[in-house]
Structure formats: structure tokens, C-alpha cells
Write a structure and sequence with these properties.
- The structure is a homodimer.
- Chain A is built from 8 helices and 5 strands; from the N terminus they run ααβαααβαβαβαβ.
- Chain A is of the alpha+beta class.
- The first copy, chain A, has one domain: NADH Oxidase (3-Layer(aba) Sandwich), CATH 3.40.109.10.
- In chain A, strands 1-2-4-3 form a 4-stranded antiparallel sheet.
- The radius of gyration of chain A is 18 Å and the shape is globular.
- Chain A starts with a helix and ends in a 10-residue tail after the last strand.
- Chains A and B meet through helix 1, helix 2, strand 1, helix 4 and helix 6 of A and helix 1, helix 2, strand 1, helix 4 and helix 6 of B.
């Protein structure tokens, strides 16, 4: 597929079929993940590829609990009052579906980042793992597989880490369910470049761009 | 270009020509950035696209100072003792070149993320900005433009924010110099998937993948 056709139609696919993903397809996705950059090319990333049914089911239970916690957060609690056919309402319905069915995705990848000794986690820790997460989702889309990026498993982080044997000095950065999509790929709803990009300093319109 | 040809040959290009990037090319890169996901699709991102020569020069000065700070960090100080033709040695030489020449890149993008009121910055804040940063670098590569992701400007964060008028509640997540490359694109040096991905739980070999 053409690069721009892939990258401009990768949207969060939260309704997934339970059909298995062939090994060679999954391998291609993970091979793409590791082409991403990381700070100092340290590649301090790890990916737990969960296919075992019992572990996926348990992840699904923990994720359902995490979803319940998320709904107590004001932004999301507020979204429940939006009309069901508004963008926020649709997103919430889709996210709720994932909240109830995550464990049914045939593959769930937990993306992790190991901290250097003595280094505290910060915003820029994410610069060494989320590019790889984005590569996973883009490669999946190129191969016709739906995915999304979720971090709310961290409401049950201790349990997730125990379930998958994650060491104490490793941070769980994202959970990425993968599966053939029930919906269709398409350009995601976004504000325009002109609304979020500035020329030379904050607040100055880009103009010709 | 084919998706996988782009994504598997995007490596950090730190030696860049000073030739200008046409507006339509830059627009396509930024249009790709905003297709990335963000938490709850809040799109709490902003991108300051710096083309003004004086501001780039000042960013270059600040970046040179930041590079000096980085060289005091043990990991990087240690890398200076590696042979010049080793992977670490080559990376260091390339990063040093950027340390001295960042301001000469024709475009420098500062990717920012605005925190929700009352929310503290964390690892997962990065999930709402680094996927967009990765999209910028991939789109650039698809269009023959080199880039890299650097976060060391944060050694001079207050000065960078002042120079570009960044508000207090906005975090600067990455600096991305863009320019036609002096070197060639190619598969980046990485450990294999088998070394960084596990099956079902930490430490268990993926086997068939």
C-alpha cells in the first residue's frame, strides 16, 4: 500500500473480530515496530505479545475494571452526556465496546520501556516507546488489521505487571489490541493543521501552509 | 512510496542540507502529523514550525549548549570512549554534528503537548504527542526529507519556551529538524524482534515469530 494511504487512514479500531492473526503477519508488524527511533538508539523497549487465551481473558477483566475507573475522570464522565451520534458520543461508545471486549482481541501487545538506572520517568521517556507503538499500529493498518492505543490499563498496572511478569524497573507504556476490524478504515476526525500549527512562534498563523 | 519501504528505512538523519523545503511538502508532512492518535482524541498537540532564520540560529545556540549538558550524562560521556567506527561512535559523531548545526536546518518543528488542568505530566502524556512526531518523521522520509527526534533542548527548556512564546501549561516534547539529507536513507541498526519481544509473558521466547 502507498505510504500516505496507510498513514492518513489509520484510525482507532476498537471493534475487532476474534479471528487469529497469522504468524507471518504478526512478525511483519513487530519487525516494523523495531525500526522506530529511541533515545540514543538504546532500544530500551520490550513487547509482550499476548495470544494465550487465559491471559487475554484476564487482561480483559482488568481492562474492564480500568474502564470503570476512567469513567470517574471528569473529561470522560462529561463525554457520557454528549449525544450518542456526536463525535465524542461515538468515540465513547466505541471505547466502551473495547472496555467490555478487549480480552477477545486475538492479539494484545503490551509495549514497555525500561528505565536507565537512576533515571526517573518523564514525558520524554515516551519518546523511546510511542514511536514504536505508532509503527505497530501503522503496520497493522497496512496489513488490514485494526488496532488502537490505550493506556488505561495503568489503573490496574500492578495486576497487569504481575499477570505478565513485568519487572519492577519496567514501565508499561501502552496496550495495543490487534485484530481484523469490524468497521472500516478511514481518515480520522481531526482539527485542521491551521488550528494546531504555528509559524515561528506560538499563536502566529502558518499562512501559506 | 510503498508503506513498508518508507517505515523500514526511516533512520535518524542528522546531517542536513540547508536547501529550503517547499511549502506544499511541509504542508503534507504536517497533514500527516495530525492523523496520529491522541488520548481521547483530544488533539492537545501544537506544532511550532520554525523557518525564520534568526529564531533558528538562536535555537541552534541553545541546542549547542544543551549538547554540552548531554555530554555530562554518564551514558553519553561513556560513548565518547567507543571507537569512532563502532555503532555508538558513529551515532555520537552524527549527534555531535547536529549539536553544532541544528540551527542550519531549513525547518525545525517543536512538538508540544498541553496538559489538562490539574493533570501532572507522566509517561503516558507522551502517548498523545510522540505518535504525531513519528508521523512527521515518516512523512518526511516518504518525501525524501531527513529528520530526527531530539529532546535534549529540554536542558534549555525555559529559554526555548521564551524564544518561541510557549505558554507555561504547555510541555515541549520534541524538536524535529527537517531538511534534505546529506546521507542516505536505509534500514536502521536494531536488535532483532526475538531479543525484544516475548510470548505471553516477560522473558518467554516468541518461537515461531
Amino acid at each position: 500500500m502507498d505510504f500516505f494511504d496507510v498513514v492518513t487512514t489509520q484510525r482507532a479500531m476498537r471493534r475487532l473480530k476474534t479471528d487469529a492473526i497469522p504468524d507471518d503477519v504478526l512478525k511483519k508488524i513487530m519487525d516494523t515496530a523495531i525500526c522506530a527511533p529511541s533515545g540514543g538508539n538504546r532500544q530500551n523497549w520490550s513487547f509482550v505479545v499476548v495470544r494465550d487465551q487465559a491471559r487475554r481473558a484476564r487482561l480483559g477483566e482488568l481492562y474492564r475494571e480500568a474502564w470503570g475507573e476512567l469513567m470517574k475522570v471528569p473529561y470522560y464522565a462529561g463525554a457520557t452526556k454528549e449525544p450518542a451520534d456526536s463525535p465524542a458520543g461515538k468515540m465513547l461508545a466505541s471505547a466502551r465496546h473495547l472496555g467490555e471486549h478487549l480480552g477477545e482481541a486475538p492479539v494484545i501487545v503490551l509495549a514497555c520501556v525500561t528505565l536507565d538506572p537512576g533515571v526517573r520517568v518523564s514525558l520524554t521517556t515516551g519518546a523511546s516507546i510511542y514511536p514504536a507503538v505508532q509503527n505497530i499500529m501503522l503496520a497493522a493498518r497496512a496489513l488490514g488489521i485494526g488496532s488502537c492505543l490505550t493506556t488505561i490499563h495503568r489503573f490496574r498496572d500492578a495486576q497487569v505487571k504481575e499477570l505478565l511478569g513485568i519487572p519492577a524497573d519496567v514501565e508499561t507504556a501502552a496496550l495495543i489490541p490487534l485484530g481484523y476490524p469490524l468497521g472500516r478504515f478511514g481518515r480520522p476526525p481531526r482539527r485542521s493543521v491551521g488550528e494546531v500549527a504555528f509559524a515561528d512562534r506560538w499563536g502566529r498563523a502558518l499562512g501559506s501552509l
